[in-house]
From TrEMBL:
This is CCHC-type domain-containing protein. Residues 228-244 form the CCHC-type domain. The keyword Ion transport does not apply. The keyword Plastid does not apply. GO terms for biological process: activation of innate immune response. Keywords: Metal-binding, Zinc, Zinc-finger. InterPro entries: RBD_ZCCHC3_1st, RBD_ZCCHC3_2nd, ZCCHC3, Znf_CCHC, Znf_CCHC_sf. PROSITE patterns: ZF_CCHC. One of its GO terms (molecular function) is zinc ion binding. It comes from Poecilia formosa. The lineage of its organism: Eukaryota, Metazoa, Chordata, Craniata, Vertebrata.
Length: 250
């Protein structure tokens, strides 16, 4: 009799290629720090980062008591982890010797942009967003009678900082020339509209910040640098004369 054929199935390791998994992060305990799986769950995930057990789908304890991979039940909790870890790492001693890297891509966001001016073109808002994210598509919002409301909706992929892996959130305010608008989306962190900090809001801000050159030494009105376009980010011209502006090409 011929021997039966055996099919070998290779099982993938939990340590898959970053970006190939869903709602997953990897924590590495640095220096001499070690924990078992239950200690890590209760002390780091639950106590320090504020998660409930029901929000954690899997915790993989890899050999050595120093590396843990965590899969969250939803993308919302995954993004909360990325956001909380970055904001708490410098203030919580228990997180001082803990590193974290995302193993997943962020899901596309539905962005709502409100600009109540007929002078603002859809294409220029898209150009502004493309400086800060990957725009998949968008459309103008209309009411039941088909009349435009001034709102635009876009589907975008947020970018990550290449050095830290942190999600780069969109500013809550968009300004094109003298026209100002607002940006909203689920999971958007609350930040100071003056300096961009997530540690406080505008009412408590005492920082000096220049929106033209990002200096912390002077205000925008006192900036010695050439004016910077708030559409394309280049110096030497404003939105009104920007060659990238759709309004200037038609």
């Amino acid at each position: 009799r011929e021997p039966a054929q055996v099919q070998v199935v290779r099982m993938s390791s939990p340590m898959a290629t970053p970006g190939s998994r869903r709602n997953a992060v990897r924590f590495d305990l640095q220096n001499d720090k070690e924990m078992d799986r239950l200690q890590f769950s209760r002390l780091i995930l639950q106590k320090e980062l504020g998660f409930l057990p029901a929000q954690l789908d899997y915790i993989f304890a890899l050999p050595g008591r120093k590396t843990f991979e965590v899969v969250f039940t939803t993308n919302t909790f995954f993004e909360k982890c990325l956001r909380n870890f970055e904001s708490l790492k410098t203030t919580r001693p228990q997180l001082a010797n803990v590193g974290m890297v995302s193993l997943s891509q962020t899901e596309p966001k539905t962005i709502t942009v409100l600009m109540f001016s007929e002078q603002v073109r859809m294409e220029d808002i898209k150009t502004w967003l493309q400086q800060r994210s990957t725009v998949i598509h968008g459309y103008e919002m209309r009411d039941e009678d088909g009349i435009r409301t001034g709102g635009r909706r876009f589907f975008v992929q947020l970018k990550r900082d290449l050095r830290t892996g942190e999600i780069q959130h969109l500013p809550p305010v968009i300004q094109l020339g003298a026209i100002r608008g607002h940006v909203f989306y689920p999971g958007q962190p609350k930040i100071c509209h003056r300096c961009g900090s997530q540690q406080h809001l505008l009412a408590e801000c005492h920082n000096i910040h220049c929106r033209n050159c990002d200096s912390k030494e002077h205000l925008t009105k006192n900036c010695p640098d050439p004016v910077k376009c708030n559409l394309c980010g280049e110096s030497g011209h404003t939105f009104k004369t920007c060659p990238s502006s759709y309004a200037n090409r038609v």
